[in-house]
Amino acid sequence: MQIAVVGSGTMGHGIAEVAAMAGMEVKLIDISWDILNKAKERMYDSLKRLHERGTIKETPDSVLSRVEMSTSYEIARQSDFAIEAVPEILDLKRKVFQELDKVVPKDSILATNTSSIPISDIGEITSRKERVIGMHFFNPPPLMKLVEVIPSKYTDPDVTNFTVDLAKKMGKTPVRLRVEVPGFVSNRIFLRLLQEACREVESREATVEEVDSSARNKLKLPMGVFELADYVGLDVVVDLWKVIVERGGTDVKCSSYKEKVERKELGVKSGKGFYAYPSPGKYSKVQLPPESKVPPERIISLAVNEGAWLIENNIVNAQEIDTVMKLGFNFPKGLLEMADEIGLDKILNQLREISDMGYQAYLPNPVLVKMVSSGEIGVRSGKGFYVYK
Ligand code: CAA
């Protein structure tokens, strides 16, 4: 199996590494040798860590012997599958897809690792829109087990099945969306966490550190919400927010992320965002106060409401949402499992309190309202998103 990866940045080099670790032949394409050489160093560094920890038996050099790099698309002439991972600019993605469409064999599949741009919009530019699909990895790809598989309205079901199998061959757990929605499952929920975190800070309910302390110390998330935004890249956060809201997702007034991007403080990649990092591109866990007054149910309330929306619209079910959050964001428990433990009545109270302040996005979803009004409030009542014996 030969895989072409276009774009060797944060995600692209990680996807290439994952494919090579799975024994696949990889063709990695980018616009300059400087960028490609940097990507090779990053793959080597990551593979070395995985080898030293015993996660992989093969040496980094042996894995990397399967990766060929080039600034030309010509090396993808024989590829069975291509994955694009260039910046989130629709015109740029379309250009990449036009190039791939010319070079890659006609029966091969073209996938995009976009975080939020509709797959249909990208596929339409090619002569094979039924062979174009979303294959969404999580940062860092070598560690995160999830791959979201997103068929567009044109995608052939065989292409979806092939992509699901490919994700498994790469050692990942695929979650397949039934219908394409902007931001997919992961980033629709991530956006809601970002929005609530921002609302709390901008309305002076809490500080950035207090929100993050509650997320890490009470909810036991691996990173605080602002810390995760820094890790993902604040430019990426602003882009995915814009794409989802422009396509119908409800907005919440917030300027914090945009202001950081305007000041070129992009998070880990630039060395500074909401927090300071040792050097550009180098993450180290941020220091947070051990105590926080922020109720954990407040942090996840809007995200749980989004989960209810995804269920209502039959995009995915509760287990699939929780798989996304556990394997894509390393949550210790699923989002909806947490909601069941906290109590859906408490989540609903948070949503009502905040929507009463005038925030449209917090209007409780009918699925949630119905569950609570019929006494399904989670673990305490024996039934919520899940059934408890
Ligand atoms: N390759 C190999 N190993 C790596 C690595 C990489 N790229 N990155 C980190 N590691 C290793 C470290 O070397 C370390 O190994 P040891 O335990 O052997 O020392 C281990 O992973 C833990 O790393 P750290 O000590 O640096 O920090 P940590 O304990 O906080 O773990 C983390 C880091 C795994 C990233 C963890 O914080 C985490 O799970 N965070 C959440 C990440 C997340 O949510 N990602 C999804 C973002 S959303 C997205 O990507 C999609 C989108 O469209 C926006």
TrEMBL record:
GO terms for biological process: fatty acid metabolic process. InterPro entries: 3-OHacyl-CoA_DH_NAD-bd, 3HC_DH_C, 6-PGluconate_DH-like_C_sf, 6PGD_dom2, NAD(P)-bd_dom_sf. It comes from the Archaea. Residues 183-277, 298-388 form the 3-hydroxyacyl-CoA dehydrogenase C-terminal domain. Pfam families: 3HCDH, 3HCDH_N. One of its GO terms (molecular function) is oxidoreductase activity, acting on the CH-OH group of donors, NAD or NADP as acceptor. Gene3D superfamilies: N-(1-d-carboxylethyl)-l-norvaline Dehydrogenase, domain 2, NAD(P)-binding Rossmann-like Domain. This is 3-hydroxybutyryl-CoA dehydrogenase. Residues 2-177 form the 3-hydroxyacyl-CoA dehydrogenase NAD binding domain. It comes from Metallosphaera hakonensis JCM 8857 = DSM 7519. SUPFAM superfamilies: 6-phosphogluconate dehydrogenase C-terminal domain-like (SSF48179), NAD(P)-binding Rossmann-fold domains (SSF51735). Keywords: Oxidoreductase.
